[in-house]
């Protein structure tokens, strides 16, 4: 293998609960009850405007125009207070002897904040690919293919490390090797070439 492509939210950083806690808080302001845990289970890795559209349908509501802006403010505040890297991530990154990068469905500003808060920014300077800049969101393979092309690596020689099913679908569509980071899942996903519960399991294997 010649390249490792990391997802960011939920893979490098422990952010999925925080993002969905912000959504829980945002919905509560509109009188809607939805737990962060339920939201994680339903929408992990999904593009934000798809999540918002789904929630509008589920709760028969039209969100106000400032909904996304206020939601992202809540996420940023929670990141500053509580965001941490996932266990074993730093050790894995420092063990790699091949190039690596990030390909995330999040906006660049959110990715960079997550890396800065967790101290991971020094590892990914100049190696961040955002779906908002590429114009392709998982499960479409375009983001991963763009990352591979920019890093000048054949897609077949790429490992993708993902925590979401839409991410695995994108990796498979790009004909890349997929690793499913699922710390709380014992059942194996048929979408993944390899499934792990801790990042340390990958040390020496990539």
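Sequence proposed for the structure above (206 residues):
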């Amino acid at each position: 293998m010649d390249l490792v492509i990391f997802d960011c939210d939920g893979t490098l950083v422990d952010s999925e609960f925080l993002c969905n806690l912000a959504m829980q808080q945002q919905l509560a302001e509109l009188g809607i009850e939805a737990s962060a845990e339920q939201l994680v289970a339903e929408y992990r890795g999904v593009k934000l405007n798809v999540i918002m559209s789904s929630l509008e349908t589920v709760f028969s509501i039209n969100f106000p125009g400032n909904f996304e802006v206020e939601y992202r403010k809540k996420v940023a505040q929670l990141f500053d207070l509580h965001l941490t890297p996932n266990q074993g991530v730093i050790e894995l990154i420092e063990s790699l002897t091949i190039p690596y990068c990030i390909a995330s469905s999040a906006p660049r500003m959110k990715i960079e904040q997550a890396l800065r808060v967790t101290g991971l920014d020094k590892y990914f300077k100049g190696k961040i690919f955002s779906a908002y800049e590429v114009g392709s969101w998982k499960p479409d393979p375009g983001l991963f293919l763009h990352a591979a092309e920019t890093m000048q690596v054949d897609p077949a020689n790429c490992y993708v490390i993902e925590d979401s099913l839409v991410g695995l679908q994108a990796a498979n569509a790009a004909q890349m090797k997929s690793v499913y980071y699922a710390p709380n899942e014992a059942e194996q996903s048929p979408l993944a070439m390899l499934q792990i519960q801790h990042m340390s399991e990958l040390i020496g294997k990539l």
